[in-house]
Amino acid sequence: xxxxxxxxxxxxxxxxxxxxxxxxxxxxxxxxxxxxxxxxxxxxxxxxxxxxxxxxxxxxxxxxxxxxxxxxxxxxxxxxxxxxxxxxxxxxxxxxxxxxxxxxxxxxxxxxxxxxxxxxxxxxxxxxxxxxxxxxxxxxxxxxxxxxxxxxxxxxxxxxxxxxxxxxxxxxxxxxxxxxxxxxxxxxxxxxxxxxxxxxxxxxxxxxxxxxxxxxxxxxxxxxxxxxxxxxxxxxxxxxxxxxxxxxxxxxxxxxxxxxxxxxxxxxxxxxxxxxxxxxxxxxxxxxxxxxxxxxxx
Length: 298
Description:
- By secondary structure, the protein is α+β, with helices and mostly antiparallel strands.
- The protein has 12 helices and 7 strands.
- Strands 2-4-3-1-5-6-7 form a 7-stranded mixed sheet, sandwiched between helices.
- Strand 6 and strand 7 (237-242) form a beta hairpin.
- The radius of gyration is 25 Å and the shape is elongated.
- The model is unreliable at 99-104 and 261-298 (pLDDT under 50).
């Protein structure tokens, strides 16, 4: 008890700040790997380290302690290799957070019209049993994926989308990428997800849609030619069995979140400190004629 009393007497605000920062770092790590394949790996590494530490400190095992001390540097070097996708995703999120300071949402103007066109084109493709994969670029650039396809740089129209994904078209096999409300490229190759798919009937289009949303913040729309259904992938998750009306509602919900998200007090204070004037979207950008819709968990 006396040792605990002495320990608490040494506590000051710097000690509390130190403990709080360490707890915050561990919270961020666990939050980033939540729901990913890295979670079982991280759990196994923590259990292994705890067992090794208990055996090394409680029992007199000099050879085992020597082996652990020599293997620890190699284990630390292996962590970036094992968790490379999660670390990359975390750095991209940090980079996207920097875009919040003083920059308007470039997707706000004209996105309502593009969403209506995509929903209309998907309805026509469902009726004709044509498959499609449409990717909407957001903060993270998709130029490396666009370079694998055929550049188009055209206005988004329902007729053009249906023509590209026509069954006998030369550009139907691949993804179509939309940037700044214009078609950037078609027949693009996307990364496939390595996650377990509960429904074996989902093909390469669905795997590619989930894969690109795992690596970026893009939104992918998939039209299944076999089942005549629409799916939306976002943040590595998929919303399935949608029709054209629900597709339009979900897309508007995602962009309504971007449009109405206000910066935190810390960001407002930083803007004021740096002399950055906050910008708001023009009234025309939000005049879609419909009320804000309920957010759909992606």
